[in-house]
Design brief:
Blueprint (H helix, E strand, L loop, with lengths): L19 E2 L33 E6 L18 H8 L2 E7 L4 H10 L32 H6 L4 E7 L25 E5 L11 E3 L2 E3 L11 H19 L5 E6 L11 H4 L10 H15 L23 H33 L7 E6 L17 H5 L6 H6 L15 H7 L13 H4 E7 L15 E2 L3 H9 L6 E2 L2 E2 L22 E6 L2 E6 L2 E5 L19 E5 L15 H17 L10 H4 L15 E4 L19 E9 L6 E7 L4 E7 L2 E8 L2 E6 L7 E11 L8 E7 L2 E8 L12 E3 L20 E9 L1
Helix pairs in contact: 1-7, 4-7, 6-10
Length: about 775
């Protein structure tokens, strides 16, 4: 093995030192005389990948339960995942952190999520290094390592690893994908995005979809098209240069957006209800060998109602929401299948390692007991009324909805385990399917591998496959050791055992696994963002022997108190070692904590000045217009006969606010989770220059309280209204902007981006 670079097929004499990256150019092995006549040239070049290094396609879905895909016994057909599994190996004891952002940080760095500053999500970030979501420089990503070792590195889809207050034009950009080792990024910087109106960035530049939802736009198709195109182009230009592609769709996270043609395939398929769904899936899992014989199906918990106790309206709504999810999943499998088929057309298809992790946590219960058409409302701690969902089911799956199914279907989706997403204490939150294929190295095997694995094991596996060491230094910074271990031995050794120890913690739902034993303490409830229990010492710990109890069905805590105490001590030691403390169980409360200012902004300033074109500003980087009083003054210059467009937009379909002109008439619309408070002038603005002002007088007394809002034109009050409640946490997944409403519209009264016709001198927002 040696130096290989563009235009040459021979090997140099010296192997590169890959222990520190970036590396110097290849050594000069020519001769330098007094003139070119007595000299021998020799081109230097960048270090190439080791000979035989594979392409790597790392696929990560979002919010998928262990018992949802047909590949692992579920009732949602995933034929493309089935096919990949038939060409490789299934893993039935692979683990995540129980929630998306932390899982992704662990996956990309090979360190535990608290070690790399991602103890929880950026929207809930706090000012502790382990919970700030600010990825430290001593936990470099796999892309950073592979890029400096001769790989192309690309990221498509979800990025939940960049603090959203750093996602403006002001940066900094070193925690964006392109600053973390990825040469190209096309996706969104948030926990989720609207699939019809996504907030897309190409590298660090905001871009808009190339067509509208009515014209058939869907982000899943868009990102797949782009991934295939770049992959084919790269292999056309440099067929021997390997790539690392991280393909991370927003699916299957809410909002579950899909067309009726996909959803209708599942009409009536789940009318049996969630208990019988679990029964059928469990029998499939036993028959397929996904779970070992002797596994017990865990019983229905008290927080899931018996299906037959539900009203006809409940059954109809719950089934419709899950049919919609199933349609979205089938569509997603189809799109991933297009990518996998494109891989097979590559000149080095056989030498492509595909690692397909089916979910970054278990199935999500964040839709609440009844499900919702506005899941951002639920995440703000506000329950959804069943009748309201039933009344608007005609919007299901479309651009004006943000749907999520109810708690019962999340429980069913995690068959045979207890609990759901966020609950890191139990396998329903942390155990996800994984499929690995590498035609050049892996012989297909129907027997699932049962090695106990974790996300942190993926980076060392990729490095071993590429024959690349983890560098001691990256960009001059000494690196924190990897927490994981390669599982490449499992490719041809069905008896490979995997990890001996792993801790879990999210929202202080916590667990420790040691040599087959697992101790669990469940603490918070995923659909109760308003609830922070505290009293951690009063949590009830459970004890399981996973060697004989695959599903965590038999709690041994009362029988073996000494063993339980031993594991609790092991958790405490792991928590200290991995910077888990301080515990914080606040949901909506932590969501409402002010986040850092945009770098370069004076945090003491109460005045924000914007000009037209200031768009795609993430919510934490926007003016703090929630839970306090403010005034907005817009100086505009328009022709009254053509005056229209957005002056200021904040948020979108789920919640937000917008000031705009329609037929010259100023309108302010406050969208409180689809309850719209609208004030407007009775006449158009005058021709030429004018000043429009909105005064928002907050009632105070806590988060989400009421307000009085007034609209004035050239110092003349034109309308006012009183609101009994306002958005206390987050408006959702869209952004703030001036001069246009990019992404989702706040109101149905216009089509985005609805750019202003005329000019905006400036928009000034004063926090009072």
């Amino acid at each position: 093995m040696g130096w290989l670079f563009a235009g040459e097929r021979h090997l140099k004499a010296t192997d590169p030192d890959r222990s520190k990256v970036p590396m110097r150019l290849t050594p000069f092995e020519g001769e330098i005389g007094k003139t070119y006549k007595d000299s021998v040239s020799d081109w230097q070049g960048p270090v190439a990948a080791p000979e035989g290094a594979p392409n790597v396609l790392l696929i990560l879905l979002d919010d998928v339960g262990f018992g949802q895909t047909s590949t692992f016994g579920g009732l949602i057909p995933t034929p493309n995942l089935d096919k990949l599994a038939s060409e490789g190996i299934k893993y039935n004891r692979f683990h995540t952190t129980a929630i998306c952002g932390p899982s992704r940080a662990a996956l990309l760095t090979g360190r535990n999520h608290h070690q790399c500053g991602n103890g929880f999500l950026m929207e809930w970030a706090t000012g502790f290094p382990n919970y700030s979501t600010m990825l430290p420089k001593n936990t470099a990503t796999i892309a950073e390592v592979l890029k400096h070792n001769g790989y192309n590195t690309w990221w498509y889809g979800k990025n939940h690893s960049t603090p959203d207050w750093e996602t403006t034009v002001a940066g900094p950009f070193d925690r964006w994908p392109t600053g973390m080792g990825f040469e190209y990024f096309y996706g969104f910087n948030a926990g989720e995005t609207h699939q019809y109106y996504p907030v897309i960035f190409e590298n660090t530049v905001p871009v808009e979809p190339n067509k509208t939802p009515d014209e058939g736009y869907h982000f899943m198709t868009d990102m797949t098209d782009r991934a295939i195109a770049r992959m084919k182009l790269a292999k056309s230009v440099a067929p021997e240069k390997p790539f690392f592609m991280y393909f991370a769709p927003g699916a299957m996270h809410a909002p579950h957006h899909v067309t009726a043609s996909w959803r209708d395939q599942f009409k009536g398929k789940f009318d049996m209800g969630w208990e019988k769904y679990r029964d059928q899936v469990f029998q499939n899992q036993l028959r397929m060998g996904i779970v070992p014989q002797g596994t017990q199906l865990t019983p229905r918990p008290e927080w899931v109602p018996e299906w037959e106790s539900l009203s006809d309206e409940q059954k109809d709504v719950y089934c419709a929401l899950f049919e919609n999810f199933a349609g979205y999943f089938a569509f997603t499998d189809h799109e991933v299948g297009r990518l996998l088929n494109a891989v097979k057309e590559l000149p080095d298809a056989e030498n492509t390692l595909v690692i397909y992790i089916v979910g970054d946590n278990g199935a999500s219960a964040e839709g609440g007991p009844d499900g919702t058409l506005n899941e951002i409302r639920n995440l703000n701690g506000l329950p959804t009324d069943l009748d309201e969902v039933a009344t608007h089911l005609d919007l299901l799956g479309g651009p004006e909805s943000e749907p999520h199914y109810p708690v019962g279907w999340a429980w069913a989706g995690n068959t045979p385990f207890q609990w759901v997403k966020q609950v890191a204490s139990h396998l329903g939150g942390t155990r996800n399917p994984m499929v690995v294929s590498w035609p050049a190295k892996i012989q297909p095997d129907e027997r699932p591998r049962d090695a106990f694995l974790h996300l942190v094991d993926v980076v060392p596996t990729i490095l071993e496959a590429a024959n690349v060491p983890m560098p001691e230094q990256v960009n001059g910074i000494t690196q924190l050791p990897l927490a994981g271990k390669s599982f490449m031995d499992s490719f041809d050794n069905a008896g490979y055992q995997g990890r001996q120890k792993q801790y879990f913690e999210i929202f202080t739902n916590r667990s420790i696994y040691v040599d087959g034993w697992k101790a669990n303490a469940q603490h918070t409830i995923p659909w109760r963002q308003d609830l922070a229990p505290g009293n951690w010492d009063q949590d009830r710990w459970e004890l399981y022997n996973l060697e004989s109890d695959f599903s965590e069905a038999n709690d041994l805590a009362a029988m073996m108190p000494q063993k339980l105490e031993e594991l609790k001590e092991q958790f405490a030691a792991a928590a200290e070692q991995n910077s888990v403390y301080p515990f914080d169980d606040r949901g909506a409360g932590r969501l409402a904590i002010p986040k850092p200012s945009v770098p370069g902004w004076d945090p003491e300033s109460k005045t924000y000045i914007y000009y037209a074109g200031a768009t795609r500003i993430a919510e934490p980087a926007a003016p703090p217009m929630k839970n306090q009083s403010w005034s907005l003054t817009a100086s505009i210059d328009v022709n009254e006969s053509t005056a229209e467009g957005v002056i200021m937009g904040f948020g979108g379909v789920a919640a937000g606010m917008v000031l705009y002109l329609k037929d010259g008439v100023p309108v302010f619309d406050y969208n409180f989770f689809e309850e719209h408070t609208i004030i407007q002038s009775h006449s158009p603005v005058p021709n030429g220059k004018s000043v429009i002002r909105v005064d928002f007088d907050y009632d105070g007394g806590g988060a989400g309280k009421g307000a009085t809002v007034r609209l004035s034109v050239d110092d003349q009050l034109v309308d006012s209204a009183v609101m009994s409640a306002t958005v206390g946490g987050r408006c959702g997944i869209d952004t703030f902007g001036v001069g246009a409403d990019t992404g989702q519209p706040v109101t149905k009264d216009y089509q985005p981006p609805f750019e202003i016709v005329g000019s905006i001198d400036k928009v000034v927002i004063e926090i009072r």
